[in-house]
Design goal:
The protein is an all-alpha fold. It has a domain of about 120 residues: Tetratricopeptide repeat domain (Serine Threonine Protein Phosphatase 5, Tetratricopeptide repeat, Alpha Horseshoe). The chain has 39 helices and two strands. The protein has a two-stranded antiparallel ribbon with strand order 1-2. A hairpin with a 2-residue loop joins strand 1 and strand 2. Helix 2 packs parallel to helix 4, helix 32 packs antiparallel against helix 33 and helix 37 packs antiparallel against helix 38.
């Protein structure tokens, strides 16, 4: 019986004639039924069999494993009176495929080796266990399996070799993987593809390309997809696109794996035009229904800034929208469009960890700490490192030291040391303590960390500068260089900030020049703003003018505001008047710099000029964002602006203020009478 139709026909004839099926026929029909997803019918036939042999048990056990009903498969495995190698291999496969059953797999394998009646360890057994070892990155056990394969002469087939290469590669034993491939007596497609994947995983793309070109006639779609994926994973996006063109030229068909890698590369390169071309190929190919491909298309459009296209793709996805919705939320969050991100987030019935992380990160980057705290109250799972990083960022924005300490205690209790993002979390924690005014805590945490990176040093250099320890900031920078760490642009912003607070003009100039000459870093507007402020504080306004003229880009509002402050400090109205024409270009509808210019005139008693600027502000209807102050009390942030009369506890606040004013007046009177 080759088809389900033949099997059902044979079964119907047996029922009609009243005769029993032979064991052989029943076993065949069970396999056919399970192959077509008719598990219930397969069980019914199995239960009605008057006699069963070991093949009957193997067929029904495998049917349950294929249908992902491992609990039923285990029950059948424990009930079967006879077990052979196939029985053990079937249940081992079920254990390996399912998370949380790894200990059962090791126990069953050990029991299998002891049971020498009908059972012997074969190639399938060992390759299955190698897959488990690779999954767990358990290299010592993998080496034992390798020895067992050699001992039982199961190490020379293409599937054994590929499994060994895969295991060693995933267990970070690259040399051993290469040795297995070198010792292989035959050069076939399976082992070649396994070694290609190992080279890509190790980042050895030149070796991967050389192997790919060796025996070109063996290459198949898997070979092409493996190399394209390897280029993308190692940051060679352009090469990946070029290889895809060659793949099509050679006549190989693209599939969901090809498109997944291509879309990742295009998202990294922000290639909107090419993304549309790949999108059209996906539609022609029919793989748009694949959730990974559709979410990749949404992601690449979002990263290209074309959210309209992304929304259009999302709306056309008929089923399994969670991946695409996640990409859309991540896209909106990264662009700061939190209202749209929240709309999709609230409409999603299946909120995954990526969605939550994107929302936390988006609110933190949008400087909306209250939204971060509210979201944390709605989050019912255990927060991970990335979510906690966003929460600590929100704490630093509002100087919420009490909540920050609670998060710190939680981190110590759970322990995230092995997480890839742990250093980022610690850096954010140090920044939170520094910005919340608790510098000793920040310094203590930093000193306990021996393995420091550039980001950690940047945060600590900035913290020392912020709290007036400029010389310590410079010492940390020197220590950073001694450790062989390369500074980045953020490092020099922190250093220049330290110099400007302490009036270290010569040292500041030295670091400013060294950025390009010694470290090959281009200087941005923020670096120029630091130098402008440094010169302004040192009464060297002529250097400020020269520096601004040398700036290669357009002067932005930060540089302009810093320059106006320098003019005010140096009482130079003429230079302040020269930049007045730039205000319209850089300010738009905001009025912060106009107010600064008006204050420059007011400081020098130029009331007519000040009034003229005020009239410009009124005529242009520009708005200045009102400054505010806040205080964190009992887990709630209280925000105040000038003349604020809308606080719900305003009567109590004003009563306390009256008492304070009264006490201050009494103290002043007593002091004057002394």
């Amino acid at each position: 019986m080759r088809s389900i139709k033949d099997g059902l026909k044979h079964l119907g004839q047996s029922i009609k004639s009243g005769s029993s099926l032979t064991i052989f026929s029943s076993n065949q029909i069970i396999r056919l039924l399970s192959k077509h997803g008719l598990i219930k019918e397969a069980h019914n036939l199995f239960d009605e069999m008057p006699e069963r042999n070991i093949y009957s048990w193997n067929a029904i056990i495998w049917a349950n494993i294929e249908s992902l009903n491992l609990t039923r498969a285990i029950s059948l495995f424990d009930s079967t009176p006879l077990k052979d190698t196939v029985t053990y291999n079937s249940i081992l496969t079920g254990y390996v495929r399912s998370d949380g059953y790894q200990p059962h797999a090791f126990q069953t394998f050990a029991k299998m080796r002891k049971d020498d009646n009908l059972v012997c360890v074969d190639e399938v057994t060992l390759t299955t266990m190698l897959n488990l070892t690779a999954k767990l990155c358990f290299s010592s056990y993998g080496k034992q399996l390798h020895c067992c394969m050699i001992k039982t002469n199961n190490h020379s087939s293409c599937f054994s070799v590929s499994s060994l290469i895969d295991m060693y590669s995933k267990c970070d034993c690259f040399k051993e993987a290469c040795q297995v491939f070198t010792d292989c007596s035959m050069f076939d497609l399976v082992s070649k593809n396994a070694m290609l994947a190992a080279y890509c995983r190790e980042g050895e793309m030149e070796m991967a390309l050389n192997l790919f070109r060796r025996r070109n006639d063996l290459n198949d779609e898997v070979s092409w997809n493996t190399l394209i994926s390897g280029y993308v994973q190692n940051g060679y996006d352009e090469q990946a696109l070029e290889l895809f063109v060659c793949m099509e030229f050679e006549g190989f068909k693209s599939n969901e794996h090809t498109f997944g890698s291509l879309l990742t590369a295009l998202a990294s390169l922000r290639r909107f035009k090419h993304a549309k071309e790949v999108h059209s190929k996906v539609l022609k190919n029919g793989t748009i229904s694949n959730p990974f491909v559709s979410s990749g298309i949404v992601d690449v459009y979002c990263k290209c800034g074309e959210t309209g296209y992304a929304e259009s793709v999302l709306a056309r996805i008929a089923s399994e929208k969670s991946f695409a919705t996640t990409s859309m939320i991540v896209g909106y969050s990264s662009k700061g469009n939190m209202s749209e991100a929240r709309r999709l987030f609230d409409s999603s019935s299946d909120k995954n960890i990526v969605m939550w992380t994107a929302m936390f990160s988006g609110y933190a980057k949008s400087h909306n700490p209250e939204a971060v705290f509210n979201l944390l109250n709605d989050y019912n799972s255990i927060p991970d490192v990335l979510i906690l990083t966003s929460v600590l960022t929100a704490c630093s924005m509002q100087a919420a030291i009490d909540l920050g300490k609670q998060v710190h205690a939680y981190i110590l209790r759970i322990g995230f040391e092995n997480d890839d993002n742990y250093r980022k979390l610690i850096s954010t924690m140090i920044d939170m303590y520094s910005k919340s005014g608790n510098f000793p805590y920040a310094k203590r945490i930093f000193e306990k960390i021996y393995s420091r990176d550039t980001i950690l040093y940047n945060v600590m250099i900035a913290a020392h500068a912020h709290h007036g320890y400029e010389s310590e900031s410079i010492s940390l920078f020197e220590e950073m260089l001694e450790r062989g760490l390369k500074p980045d642009k953020a490092t020099f912003i922190s250093l220049l900030s330290a110099c400007r607070h302490h009036g270290l003009v010569e040292i500041g100039e030295k670091y400013f020049i060294s950025m390009e000459k010694e470290f090959g870093l281009s200087r941005d507007a923020d670096h120029y703003a630091c130098m402008i402020d440094l010169y302004g504080r040192a009464n060297q306004l002529e250097k400020t003018v020269t520096l601004m003229k040398s700036f290669y880009g357009k002067v932005d509002n930060v540089m302009l505001g810093t320059f106006l402050n320098a003019c005010k400090m140096n009482k130079n109205i003429e230079l302040a008047r020269e930049v007045e024409n730039e205000l319209t270009r850089v300010e738009g509808g905001l009025g912060k710099r106009y107010v600064q210019l008006a204050n420059v005139y007011a400081a020098e008693g130029k009331w007519d000029e000040m009034e003229r600027i005020r009239n410009v502000i009124r005529a242009k209807e520009v708005k200045k964002i009102a400054g505010c102050s806040w205080i964190y009390v009992d887990g709630k942030c209280h925000v105040f602006t000038v003349g604020d009369i809308f606080h719900p506890e305003r009567e109590v606040i004003f009563t306390v203020l009256e008492f304070l004013f009264s006490d201050l007046s009494m103290v002043k009177t007593e002091f004057l009478n002394c």
